[in-house]
Specification:
Radius of gyration of chain A: 21 Å
Structural class of chain A: alpha/beta
Shape of chain A: globular
Helix content of chain B: 10-25%
Order of helices and strands of chain B: EEEEEH
Number of strands of chain B: 5
Largest sheet of chain A: 5 strands, parallel
CATH superfamily of the largest domain in chain A: HypD, alpha/beta domain 2
Bound molecules: iron/sulfur cluster
Structural class of chain B: alpha+beta
Number of helices of chain A: 17
Strand content of chain B: 35-45%
Distance between the termini of chain A: 32 Å
CATH architecture of the largest domain in chain A: 3-Layer(aba) Sandwich
Strand order of the largest sheet of chain B: 3-2-1-4-5
CATH class of the largest domain in chain A: Alpha Beta
Helix content of chain A: 25-40%
Number of strands of chain A: 11
Number of domains of chain A: 2
Oligomer: heterodimer
Chain lengths: ~350, ~80
């Protein structure tokens, strides 16, 4: 097994599509399924899944792209930190072109002299800090439960090695509080959720119970075409039988209990505090902040951040798109002004952003 | 961004870092977050420089066979 090709098997996909067609006919009514993982949005676009489905099955994208949900104010704070003297600002590449106020981005800031580096892992900052002792290495902590344990683990290592010149700008977020906010959104009417595969690798099934308690289906789904189709099929099966449970389609990647060790690492370093999401506003308990005992690794503790008045991008509908109430086609700037080479909003920057996916594949 | 790659462990060093092979590409990943014992030859899912899950090969195979069978036999 390679765990890739097997899940792109056209015969399996065709078989599942037939089953989906059968069940959706039986259900008859429209079914709205939200995927709230950027990797799902990307895969659904890339493999053209939306167009293969029966007319009454409606897939909508939610707030699952960590870059996209980062608030413009947090982007502005990142830009401020990156332009401080003697700072190396390390970030995942996705963040580089995300626009802050006045069209500034980390990329522009770098062009005007700031030392901004792209890293593939928070752990890369360890050697970066060790070889640049006269500088402060700040890592931009974005991502959900999949990524947060990796950042927490890096902090633990730096703590153990007594590395004084590393810190994190914490904007990490957790998924469950947002899902709960979306279930109750009267503008949406979601029947089911495709829950994110790799977030669930860490958190397991428990966190999604509120979905099924609210009478909606929930299926933790993988990222290959066969996975996504099977996930949709399992959703429809739950609806037909009227029995809603948190099911795992992606069993090769997710155990019901998740990964307790990774969770332990995460909760030893971070606590849950309120966090601002683009489009969704401030949601209590949805962000990860550094615990008192690790405050020495908090960039916001080390650097003074002045009051910044952030200005939302005029005309950009990313907020509504992240809530699932608009599609990119409904944004007046989509394709006319805003495109991947000249993105106005974050949803067009990240390859997992809904606008970028629609631009490329629809 | 939560993308995870399935890869096969090729070697493990004394600092608990492993080299994994992802369809021919080799990457280094830290094993500090994985919650099971892993050895050379195991498949793991990695994300942002860390292995986060060991894939149970038997289970994955069974599940795929079952899916094929159910589709072919129209039971699902
Ligand atoms: S098309 Fe561009 S401007 Fe419109 S919502 Fe998407 S990112 Fe924002």
């Amino acid at each position: 097994m390679k765990y890739i090709d097997e899940y792109r098997d056209p015969a399996l996909a065709k078989g599942l599509l037939d089953k989906i067609a059968g069940l959706s006919k039986k259900i008859g009514q429209p079914v709205t399924i939200m995927e709230f993982c950027g990797s799902h949005t990307y895969a659904i676009g890339r493999f053209g899944i939306r167009n293969m489905l029966p007319g009454n099955i409606n897939l909508i994208s939610g707030p699952g792209c960590p870059v996209c949900v980062t608030s413009i104010h947090d982007v502005d704070v990142a830009l401020h930190l990156a332009s401080q003297k003697n700072v190396i600002f390390a970030t995942f590449g996705d963040m580089l072109r995300v626009p802050g106020s006045h069209g500034n981005s980390l990329q522009n800031t770098r062009a005007s002299g700031a030392d901004v580096r792209v890293v593939a892992s928070a752990a890369n900052c360890i050697s970066l800090a060790e070889t640049n002792k006269d500088k402060e290495v700040i890592f931009m902590g974005i991502g959900f439960e999949t990524t947060s344990p990796t950042i927490a683990s890096t902090i633990l290592t730096c703590h153990k090695k007594r590395i004084p010149n590393f810190s994190v700008f914490p904007v990490n977020k957790v998924i469950p509080p947002v899902v709960i906010a979306l279930i109750d959104d009267p503008a949406l009417n979601i029947d089911a959720f495709l829950c994110p595969g790799h977030v669930s690798t860490i958190i397991g099934t428990n966190a999604y119970e509120p979905i099924t308690q609210a009478g909606r289906a929930a299926v933790i789904t993988g990222f290959e075409p066969v996975d996504i189709l099977e996930g949709i099929f399992m959703v429809l099966a739950q609806i037909t039988k009227n029995r809603k449970t948190v099911a795992i389609q992606y069993s090769r990647g997710v155990k019901p209990e998740g990964n307790p060790r990774a969770r332990e690492v995460m909760t030893s370093v971070f606590y849950r505090g309120s966090s601002e999401w683009r489009g969704l506003g401030t949601i209590p308990e949805s962000g990860l902040l550094l615990k008192e005992s690790y405050k020495a690794f908090d960039a916001l503790n080390k650097f003074e951040v002045p009051e910044i008045r952030s200005i939302e991008i005029k005309g950009c509908c990313c907020g509504d798109i992240l809530r699932g109430i608009k599609t990119p086609n409904e944004c007046p700037l989509f394709k006319r002004v805003c495109n991947p080479l000249n993105p106005d909003g974050p949803c067009m920057v990240s390859s997992e952003g809904t606008c970028a996916t629609y631009y490329k594949y629809h | 961004m939560c993308i995870g790659f399935p890869g096969k462990i090729v070697s493990i060093d004394q600092d608990n870092y492993a080299i994994i092979d992802i369809s021919g590409t080799r990457r280094e990943v830290c094993l500090d977050l994985i919650d099971e014992d892993v050895t050379i030859g195991d498949y793991v899912i990695s994300h942002a420089g860390y292995a986060i899950h060991r894939i149970d090969e038997e289970l994955a195979k069974d599940k795929l066979d079952l899916l094929r069978e159910l589709i072919e036999n129209e039971i699902y």
